Amino acid sequence: MLQSVSNNGHSFEECKEYLKTHMRLDPGFKQFYQWCKEHDIPFIIVSSGMAPLIRAILVGLIGEEDASEIEIIANDVTLFDDGKWDIKYRHPSSGFGHDKSQAILPYRRLEKPPTIFFFGDGVSDISAARWADVLFAKEKPNGENDLATYCTREGIKHLEFNDFSQVIPVLSSIVNGEKTVAEVMA
After folding, report:
1. Which residues on neighbouring strands pair with residue 117, listed in sequence order?
2. Is residue 79 classed as helix, strand or coil in its secondary structure?
3. Which residues neighbour 115 within 8 Å (Cβ) at sequence distance 6 or greater?
4. 20 to 30 Å CA-CA from 122: which of 62, 97, 149, 162?
5. DSSP category for residue 128
6. Could you report the per-residue pLDDT of 14-31, keeping only the tens digit for each?
7. Long-range contacts of 119-125 (CB under 8 A, 24+ apart)
8. Helices and strands (DSSP H and E) totals, the chain
9. What is the pTM of this model?
10. In sequence order, what are the residues at sequence separation of 6 or more whose Cβ sits closer than 8 angstroms to the Cβ of residue 180?
C-alpha cells in the first residue's frame, strides 16, 4: 500500500501535510503525556509507522517543544532524488517492519530494569506484549482490539482502556507505591 502511494506520485511532504491536517489525538493523550512529563516518567513512542511522519504529526498536535522531547522508535523513510520515497524498516524480517519487542528487551536486560508500561491496540504490538510489566490494550472506535484478543487467547494479563486519561490513576497508584504491578494486573 505504501509503495502505491509513492508510485502514484504522492510526495513524502504531501503525505506528511495530509496526515498533519487529518490526524487527531486520542482522547486524553495530551493530558497523559503531561502527567508523565510532570512525574519524570520517560515517554517513548514505539511504532510500526515512520518516525518522520509521527514527529510531524506530534508537532502539529502538541507543539514543537513537547514533540521534540518524545523519543520515537519506529521505521524510517528513504527519500529519492526523483521525489519518490520508500519506508526503511527497522526489522525487515518482521511482518510489521518493526519488531517492537526489540525496543523493550534492552530495558529488560538491565541490572535494575524499570517498570515498563506498554500501550497498544493491534497485531503489530503482539511481539511486545509478553515483555511489558503493565500492558494496556486500547479499544478501537469500532470495538475491535487485536492485541486484547491475542492476550486473552494466550493468557497474557492486560488492562483494556478507551481513553488515555483512564490510565493515569493506574500508573499513579504504581508510581506512588499505593499498589504493586502484581496488584494492578490481578
Report:
1. 134
2. strand
3. 133, 134, 174, 181
4. 62
5. H
6. 999 999 889 888 889 999
7. 119/164, 119/167, 120/147, 121/145, 121/146, 121/147, 122/146, 122/147, 123/96, 123/147, 123/150, 124/48, 124/96, 124/98, 124/100, 125/100
8. 10, 6
9. 0.89
10. 174
